[in-house]
Amino acid sequence: MTMNENPAALLPELFLLGGAVVGLLLGAWLPRHRQWLVRLLAAVAAGAGLVATAVAATRPDQVVFGASYAVDTPTHATRSIVLTAVLVALALSVDGTRAHRRETEFVVLLQLGALGTVLLGGASDLLLLVAAFLLASVPLYALAGWDKRASSVEAAMKYFLSGALLGVTMLAGTALLLGVGRDTAYPALREGLAAAPAPVVAVGLVAVLAGLLFKIGAVPAHFWVADVTDGTPPGVAAIVTTIPKIGGVVAVYRLLLVAIPSDGPDWPLLVAVLAIASMTLGNLAAFFQTSVQRLLAYSTISQVGYLLVVVAVAGRAAQAQPALLFYLAGYAVTNLGAFAVVAALPGARTLDAHRGLARRRPALAVALAVCLLGLVGTPPTAVFLGKLAIFTAAVDGGFAWLAVVAILNTVASVFYYLRWIAPVFRDGGTVRDVAAWPAGVAYACATGSVVLGVVGGVVLPLLVGAPLS
């Protein structure tokens, strides 16, 4: 492991930042009908970031800029998933934002939020973690109210108020951990916390986790998820329910594994309880939803629960990290695919409005079925293999009871996904014109979910490699 201040180690992040800054300046001068150039620039920046990530993954792991940012396997995976999600989100939102007078702002806010998410995944210092939290939050608050509809403005206000409260809580926890640990860099903080009073460490840890739980939409910091998802356009809802979770979950994993001493607070049990609460509440709340976006909102809460299952056994099971990162990738592509179908059918806001879709748009109906069954964890999709890896890791880590609860929740989730799928294959109903770009994204995501599940045996070994400490 080396420590340096080489900006070249942050090329993917710099590409995102450069795309946002240059795009903002470019959009200020372009006429409305040419703002698509800003979107093209963002796509090029994300593509360049993926190339830079692939190159960086072939080099030794390192910590850069003191001990604040780790460039290791979890960071490479976070970069890859987030940048791919940015490309998907850019394509998904074309029809909804094309020639809009704030099209540039949409693209720039997406890139800045994605940048903060990537930094969350690689942060190895409490101060950088807080800064990344803010960067991953503030642009998305603005994005939630981007189209200035009444429902969007209300959603943005709820999102902001929840984030402000839990962000301040996170700052208080950071100050507490710094006070007793006498450092902010994770490795040094771990040594300091080992000698600190356990109750104080526990309070500080819970406060920091409160902010990260808000970022990923987990119980008990989930109250904003349903209203924000249901009150914003599908493209925005897809972004705020998918991209922040990627870096947020990796940040929780790295914080607990690297910064918290093993003989400190019993965080595995705490995370296990949060996982059960998120899975169960998300599933129960989704059972009787009739709005497709609200159903997907509660679905995302339940999906976070499965991710927290494997976080609970971090450091206890060899397959914990590969399972976590692979599930994040599978969830991202599948969830974005489901939202792409919603965006492709702007007039179909309820489950019953999808009646007859299979007869009129069979390809789109198949894509929807693949994505929804993929979220359940049906073979051969990526989420199926991810859940299998998670359950195996939980058993190996001594949390077999947690795996059983997760399996029961998986079975229960079939009910509300089938409530959406069933009308699709029934006769009757009317389906309006389908938006071309989101439909194409839905086809691509459904295909990607299956392909990733099939080649998962090749991908999983690439995700092995403990975070730097």
Describe the protein in words:
The chain has a domain at 266-469. It has helices at 11-27, 36-56, 73-92, 94-97, 103-122, 126-144, 150-181, 186-194, 198-216, 225-231, 234-259, 267-286, 292-312, 320-344, 357-360, 362-376, 382-396, 400-424, 436-454, 456-459; strands at residues 2-4, 62-64, 69-71. The protein is 73% helix and 2% strand. The protein has 469 residues and is mainly α. The chain is built from 20 helices and three strands. It is globular. The mean pLDDT is 94.
The proportion of residues forming helix, as a percent range, comes to over 70%
Number of helices: 20
Overall pLDDT level: 94
Low-confidence stretches: none
Number of strands: 3
- Which class best fits the helix and strand makeup? mainly alpha
Radius of gyration: 21 Å
Strand order of the largest sheet: 1-2-3
Q: What distance lies between the first and last C-alpha atoms, to the nearest angstrom? A: 9 Å
Largest beta-sheet characterization: 3 strands, mixed
